[in-house]
Amino acid sequence: MKRIRSSLAILAVVFTSVAALAGGSEISTPGKRFADNNCNWCHGSSGQGYTIAPRLAGQRRQYIENQLRDFFKHARDNPFSQQYMWGVRGAPMVLSPETVQDLAHYFSSLYPEAACDGDKRLAAQGQIIYQDGIPRSNIPSCVACHGPNAEGVRAFPRLGGLSYYYLKRKLREWGEGYHAAAVRPMPGVASKMSDEEIEAVASYLSFIP
Amino acid sequence: MDSLLAERASHETGCVQEVGQRKSVVSELCRPLGSETMIRPRLQTDGMTLDSGRKSRTRVHAIWQMALPAAVLAIAFSTLGRATDATISGYHFAAYGVAGKINYCTDCHGSSGRGYVGYFTMPRLAGQSPEYLVKQLQAFVERRRGNALPMRMATVHGLSPATRSAVAEHFSHLDPSPFGRAPRQLVATGKRIYDDGIPEANIPACAACHGPDARGDGAGIPRLAGQLYGYTLKTLENWDRERSQSSGDPGNIMKTIAHNMTRSQNAAVAAYLSYKR
User: Please, what are the domains in chain A?
Assistant: First the structure.
């Protein structure tokens, strides 16, 4: 009995410590604490995104910083941005520069899971559009700025693994005239794309790890 | 109007023609022009689905008057390669033709051909000799310049020779400020190398061919002034691998020069050029 109890005690200790270590971001940074209280409601408990809010995990650090500042400046004006990211209670309204950097560091350090929610049948066509563009429609290749694996660089966002629905919505919004934080070139590029082409590219990107 | 066309499509044996990836109902226009079905579409099918002769002719006449222009418009818009709704939405949308192609180039090369640093560095085209630009476009098409991933394929295959000349002409007249953003401390060394060369290393002065103002000379010697730091550096570093892939290219002289230059010398010259007006 004594041996069983001590074994159980040892097991309990091992399990809790393993659980604690395997939890991932157990190191509680200021960015994580802020995100847990303010961002994760919509962006998910590990920044993977949740319905209308995109994945922030694994996003480029500089891109996240730029977007937070641009929400503050109301440069991103699509309906979800206006409703959730602009308002008096919107997070960017109370962010200090340090918090912006902390959040960007935190989210960019998380591991991004690919959403894989696109249409598999369109992914091959989407890959062709991503790499070559569509010359007859004057659509440049995405790879030029976003990289061969859609991982982005510096302030150019990672597109790989983002949700199909989010990518599709963004590309269509730009075609409808909503503004991007960076004025060039995305609104112009997206406005030239047809719905089928948008769906193909968004499907392809959602599968990229 | 769309429901009208759809109704006609479902009621008669209309054609559904795939235009690219979009479908448009072209029941009227599938039939050969000049046949009487074009002018009086329903007379041959009288009594099929309609009530009386007179009513059917009037109704057919009204339908034909609306449906034919609608069908023509549907064809026109679908062949433009646009989305299924006929409105051309979005700003920065340029017309097709040369203006559209210029818009296409500037999406990557910057709004005034200034160059752009994405994942890849897209070089400055502004102020470049038009003959030189046309030559490079031809080299991309013929795969003699295989290095640029975004340019390696369909980009330039979308340009006809006439369009290439027109696009090159457009960019040659642009004059935005230099891109800059290079390490400033290298500029002085770069200027010295550019103006005087490095005799002890058998490196001639760049100015001897590219001009003291780095504006180049016609088809064979490109303008370097204002070229992006990362682009010039990469080109010099990778010359053997990426350029001079064919004999008879005037740029082949660069092979030896680039081979003899060290990385820090390349960086200095690139930095100097990135600020050069």
Answer: 29-109 (1.10.760.10), 120-206 (1.10.760.10)
**Testing the interface with B: which of A154, A186, A192 to mutate, by most B Cβ within 10 A?**
A192
pTM over 0.90: no
Of A102, A112, A123, A131, which is closest to residue A44 (Cα–Cα)? A112
Q: Give the nearest partner residue to A191 out of B21, B90, B154, using CB atoms.
A: B90
- Residue B116: strand, helix, or coil: strand
User: Domains in chain B, start-ordered, CATH in brackets?
Assistant: 2-79 (no CATH), 90-176 (1.10.760.10), 178-277 (1.10.760.10)
Calculate the alpha carbon distances from A38 to A41, A169, B94 in Å. 7, 24, 42
Residues 120..139 of A with a Cβ closer than 8 Å to B: which? 131-139
Per-residue model confidence (pLDDT) at position A180: 81
User: Distance between CA atoms of A141 and B133, rounded to whole angstroms?
Assistant: 20
Q: Which of B21, B88, B107 would best serve as a mutation to test chain A binding (most A beta carbons within 10 A)?
A: B107
Read off the pLDDT of residues A123-167 as tens digits, 9 standing for 90 and up.
999 999 999 888 888 888 999 999 999 999 999 999 999 999 999
Residue type (1 letter), B114: R
Yes or no, beta carbons of B21 and A145 under 8 Å apart: no
Q: How far is B92 from chain A (nearest CA, A)?
A: 5
**Nearest residue on chain B to A200, judged by CA atoms?**
B21
Helices (H), chain B: 2-11, 27-30, 36-39, 53-79, 98-109, 130-141, 154-157, 161-172, 187-196, 206-210, 229-237, 239-242, 253-260, 263-275
Longest dimension (CA), chain A: 79
Global ipTM: 0.79
Q: Is A188 on the interface with B (CB under 8 A)?
A: yes
Cis upstream peptide for A187 (omega within 30°): no
